[in-house]
Design goal:
single chain, alpha/beta, Rossmann fold, 6-stranded parallel beta sheet, 22 strands, hydrolase, 3'-5' DNA helicase activity, DNA repair, ATP binding
Length: 1037
């Protein structure tokens, strides 16, 4: 990507006279334009950071935008509101929801939690048709999807009920259809009522509820209109109807359609998008938003970015030729503009045929031809024999690909330069098999997410066995873990012997070891034995099976004693040696797996935080529902960026990415374009707010598929391969070539699909699949894992022990949960809740909150109680009563209605050189205001032991917070305090310029050491309190 702006980009960045539509073709630098526009508005003084709102669609995109803006801004600036639509609306509702009678501490449900919530109330709903008694929960997922789509179209329960009544009066409507509509409309209303009563929302509620808030309370909308003078929307072609309404409300008021021409003309709204890359109709995106933008803002300036800094001209010309088939439903046609992209990227290599078609007879052959071309491109083809006789020798003793360490500069391409794009995840199966058979490393996370990762699946099996140890499927998954060292034949023998005796696997192991897991003295039975307790099982494997019983025994004991999920799983990982098995491998894959394990621990922690008082049985049910509906946390593939392997992705996943070489595979009818599948419960046409260009939905579906093909093709920088086969799987009927091939290549491709039937029969064989170790690679650098953002807590950890920092923040090893952290979170939440209500009352909204007193503080405390990490219930109860006592003392000693609280949990991002330091100031109080400058006190609550003043003065926290507050928020910090809640002591300090400068230098030094890779341990007496003491060889215990 270019670094300087071209003429149109510069014009887009600096325009400031009204609405702006930036039509940014593929590879034209739209992200650079939108981020540089934000920086320009701030640096030119046209807007303060707080007056800019930038909206995008994913947390990852929002984070990347924040990072780019950080790089463009000078040291110290107040954070710009850059977020997803949902995060933005969540923030509004937590601040303003009280005006709708909404609890600001509502629980935001995940799809799985929404499913469980609906299922819990299943027989409370007025369901009949959609609750078959033989399988009552059969339709839950489709019903919830239906309601979510209604919310995307700004259809409230009242709107749906009104439609149902009018539908009844339509004599042409079939009785059954009316009953379906009426039942769904009734349940939609009932569901919203139940959620409101229990203070729950799901993601679909967020935007439509904000719209309701703005319509009912226009003064609140006006406040946000006054705050955000500039609004920027990225990927505007992907917005749905309600998102577009939200943006227009913020610009034009409660009734955007009634806005005057003058108001529309001066609206400072910038939308960036490309109608040719609108590919998310299936999740509610409305392409009409970008197509009709000029109707809403008739005086908008339209800037078209056509200078492409990615692809060769031949690829761009073919892509443009294809997408023109969507005319006249394109901006190029309706706006009479030229969207043909011009190649501006310099290419050193000479490439013949930048666009190449490969047609195979069978899908197996297509996969093999792709594989051999990959080997040719990377200079590895001559290293192979012409048959599969050495397939099983393509991996070393660690299961690492033979090609992974090969670097051939003369070949020109690495494996990582190559991407294979498919229309659907399952279409990648045969291609993956072919890559495996030749030992080629590849990266493919697929649709399954975190729960199906091989390093996570055994952890899930372990937890499930604690709720039902007779589940032999989960037992098999646990027993076959490489960790235990059992041979495949031994695992099979164990399963067979158990079945023969009509016992579950674990019951069989108990029988042979003559123990019962969960009994008082079971651990004494697991001393390693000199002989095997099983026939045909080695002594080592026999003892490993005993160890499995041992970890299950401990897990069951912890389950009975009500230990937290994270505690139970943490002990399993340590006692079994599971974490050690990864830490002993210095490979990218091992580091990736450890970080995935850490992410799974975080997922469980979040579940426990959201579900106080939960137990393992509830969690396993939740997990089962999550897996059933396909909800699984995504895997962060960025961790594998440095891994030299072929990229395999769906075209949807590849949007926003680019690769020197792209294979667009499986280009036949019914695969690409895919079959037209409509929703099981479609929204009635009368309720669809989007204005679709034409009534033929099939043609619009084909246009969307064509746009998807366009997106896939324009990912290629230097060479694009279009591949297809005449026959797929066991199909007897020949496939037709994709219609898009004719359009892209500007010729009839059907001639390439003439086959020799005898030759096809010979080729239709399965490719041998090698061991699934092709992701392994062995670099020693950690550069890809080093952070760009640091918090005070992280820096404090590094200062204490760099090796602990490595474990916790680079490798992200899960730390054992502890009650001190839980208690601290609870106390902070209680104090924030109390002062939030105090600020509401002080702001003139008295009566909207409860009376502020010690009882109210204790009530908030109990409502936010976390029970994670306590030794047992008695420990928890004692701690809980103690907390109530100290909070009553706090209220008596420190709460004053004369306090002028400005901010609570004020987050900051402070720039130091090329890095960002983050933090959250618990409280900022106004002391006085002199000549427009607010003089403040910053306060941080502490729930741990009290520290003396000398120790505090050496600490970085208060000087850092003072630096950030003064640089970012425009205040003068007169006083900085640590308030030790449990001890009823407040230590106050004056932060000098000298101490702030010393802190700044110290922080920069710590960051420099982290970035340099200095992670040597600092053994001390503190090692005995470290969560990683059992895996750290340097620990002083």
């Amino acid at each position: 990507m270019q670094f300087s702006l071209n003429e149109n980009q510069k014009k887009a960045v600096e325009y400031d006279r009204g609405p702006l539509l930036i039509i940014a073709g593929a590879g034209t630098g739209k992200t650079s334009v939108i981020t540089q526009r934000i920086a320009y508005l701030i640096n030119s003084g046209k807007a303060k950071s707080s007056e800019i709102l930038a909206l995008t669609f994913t947390e990852k995109a929002a984070s990347e935008m924040v990072e780019r803006v950080d790089q463009l801004m000078p040291i110290g600036y107040e954070e710009v509101q850059i977020s997803t639509f949902h995060s933005f609306c969540d923030r509004i509702l937590r601040q303003e929801g009280i005006h709708l009678g909404l609890d600001s501490n509502y629980s935001l449900m995940t799809p799985a939690q929404s499913y469980i919530f609906f299922r819990r109330h299943l027989f409370d709903f007025s369901l009949d048709l959609f609750r078959p008694l033989g399988s009552p929960s059969q339709h839950i997922s489709n019903i919830l999807k239906h309601f979510s789509r209604l919310q995307d179209e700004d259809v409230s329960p009242e709107d749906y009920l009104k439609y149902a009544k009018s539908f009844r009066r339509n004599t042409e409507a079939k009785k059954e259809h009316y009953e379906e509509v009426n039942e769904l409309a009734t349940v939609y209303k009932e569901l919203q009522t139940f959620k409101h009563k229990e203070s729950r929302l799901d993601f679909g509620d967020l935007i439509i509820t904000v719209l309701q808030l703005f319509r009912k309370k226009p003064h609140i909308l006006e406040r946000y209109q006054n705050q955000f003078k500039y609004i920027l929307v990225d990927e505007f072609q992907d917005t749905n109807f309600t998102q577009n309404v939200l943006v227009n409300m913020l610009m034009l008021g409660k009734d955007p359609e009634k806005a005057t021409r003058a108001l529309r003309k001066k609206a400072k709204i910038t939308v960036v998008g490309d109608d040719d890359q609108a590919i998310y109709k299936f999740r509610g995106a409305a392409i009409s938003n970008i197509l009709q933008f000029k109707e809403v803002y008739p005086d908008c300036l339209r800037i078209v970015l056509t200078e492409n800094y990615r692809s060769r001209q031949e690829i761009l010309d073919a892509a443009h030729q294809l997408i023109q088939k969507n005319d006249p439903y394109r901006l190029e046609e309706t706006e009479n503009i030229d969207k043909k992209l011009l190649a501006m990227a310099p290419f050193e290599k000479v490439v013949s045929d930048p666009v190449q078609l490969i047609v195979a007879d069978t899908s197996n052959e297509e996969a093999e031809l792709i594989t051999k071309e990959v080997l040719t491109l990377t200079g590895n083809k001559d290293r192979l024999k012409n048959d599969n006789s050495i397939v099983n020798k393509k991996y070393d003793s660690k299961g690492q690909s033979v090609f992974v360490d090969i670097v051939d500069e003369s070949s020109g391409y690495n494996f990582n330069d190559i991407a294979v794009l498919v229309r659907a995840n399952q279409h990648a199966d045969e291609i993956i098999q072919a890559l495996k058979s030749y030992g080629i490393p590849y990266k493919f996370t697929g649709p399954k997410g975190l729960y199906n990762r091989p390093e996570i699946s055994p952890l899930i099996s372990f937890l499930k066995l604690l709720t039902d140890y007779t589940d032999s499927v989960e037992a098999f998954n646990l027993v076959k873990m490489p960790l235990w060292g059992l041979k495949p034949r031994e695992v099979i023998d164990i399963m067979r012997l158990a079945r023969d005796r009509k016992l579950s696997t674990i019951e069989f192991l108990e029988q042979r070891w003559e123990v019962k897991i969960g009994d008082e003295n079971i651990t004494t039975a697991f001393d390693p034995k000199g002989t095997s307790v099983f026939e045909n099982i080695s002594v080592e494997s026999s003892n490993a099976l005993g160890k499995i019983l041992g970890v299950l025994d401990k897990g069951i004991r912890e389950t009975i004693s009500k230990a937290s999920l994270t505690s139970i799983l943490y002990d399993f990982c340590l006692d079994s040696g599971y974490l050690d098995s990864f830490l002993n491998e210095d490979t990218y894959l091992a580091q990736f797996q450890v970080q995935n394990i850490g992410k799974y621990f975080n997922v469980i922690k979040e579940y426990e935080l959201s579900n106080p008082g939960t137990d393992i049985y509830e969690y396993v049910n939740y997990l089962d529902y999550s897996i059933d509906i396909g909800e699984s946390p995504s895997v962060d593939t960025d961790l594998l960026e440095g891994y030299n392997a072929v990229n395999i992705l769906t075209v949807h996943s590849a949007k926003g990415l680019e690769f020197p070489i792209v294979f667009l595979a499986n280009l036949v009818s019914d695969r690409f374009p895919s079959r037209n599948r409509s929703d099981v419960l479609p929204i009635p046409d009368a309720l669809v707010k989007e204005e679709i260009p034409e009534s033929d939905s099939k043609q619009e579906k084909l246009r969307e598929e064509r746009r998807l093909f366009y997106v896939g093709a324009t990912r290629a920088k230097e060479k694009l391969y279009l591949t297809a086969a005449k026959y797929y799987a066991e199909a007897k009927r020949k496939k037709k070539p994709s219609i898009f091939l004719d359009e892209f290549l500007d010729r009839k491709v059907s001639e390439d699909f003439v086959e020799d039937q005898d030759n096809i029969q010979k080729k239709n064989i399965s490719i041998v699949t090698a061991r699934d170790y092709t992701e392994n690679i062995d670099p020693k650098e950690l550069q890809g894992y080093l952070p760009k953002t640091f918090s005070y807590t992280q820096l404090k950890t590094y200062e204490l022990c760099p090796k602990k920092y490595l474990y916790q923040y680079i490798l992200k090893l899960p730390a054992k949960p502890n009650s001190a952290l839980s208690f601290g979170i609870t106390v902070h939440a209680a104090l924030k809740g109390l002062y939030t209500e105090f600020m509401t009352e002080s702001g003139g909204l008295k009566g909207l909150t409860s009376e502020i007193n010690a009882d109210r503080l204790v009530y908030i405390y109990n409502e936010n109680w976390l029970n994670i990490g306590y030794e047992n219930k008695r420990h928890e109860n004692i701690r809980k009563r103690h907390g109530e006592k100290i909070l009553r003392s706090f209220f008596s000693e420190f709460f004053s209605k004369n306090d002028k609280v400005l901010e609570l949990e004020k987050f900051f991002r402070y720039k130091l050189g090329n890095y960002i330091v983050t933090g959250a100031i618990d409280r900022i109080d106004l002391l006085k205001e002199v000549k427009g400058v607010k003089h403040v006190e910053i306060i941080d609550y502490k729930t741990g032991k009290r520290r003396d003043r000398k120790e505090i003065e050496k600490d970085l926290q208060l000087p850092l917070y003072a630096l950030a507050a003064e640089s970012l928020f425009g205040v003068k910090v007169d006083k900085a305090s640590l308030l030790f809640v449990e001890h009823g002591v407040k230590e106050e300090f004056t932060i000098s310029d000298k101490s702030k400068e010393a802190a700044r230098v110290k922080i920069q030094d710590l960051i420099a050491r982290v970035v340099s890779g200095d992670f040597d341990a600092k053994p001390s007496h503190m090692c005995k309190y470290c969560d990683y003491r059992n895996i750290c060889e340097d620990a002083q215990i």
